[in-house]
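Go through the following before class.
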Amino acid sequence: MKVMLRAHMDTVATNEAIKTGALPHAVKKLMDTVKPEAAYFGLHEGVRSCWIVFDLQDSSDLPPLLEDLFGQNAEVEVAPVMDAAGLAKGLAATSGSPG
């Protein structure tokens, strides 16, 4: 299932993690593991944030994937997403359904 991971990272925790090298290591480890379709990094609501779209094979994969982010005091959300083709397929399946 295609999912989007969104993480807002605590400024104090990530400042320290940048100094020690823990944050770059955590990001590289996550990218190497999930092999994202897309990954974006920037500011959101005034804090370091990331948006990563990847294929989640099993929900039991989440705890080890997210542990390093939680170590940065990150607020994390993971939600199912689809591309335009997936949306078209889903909408086609609902045509003719009662409202």
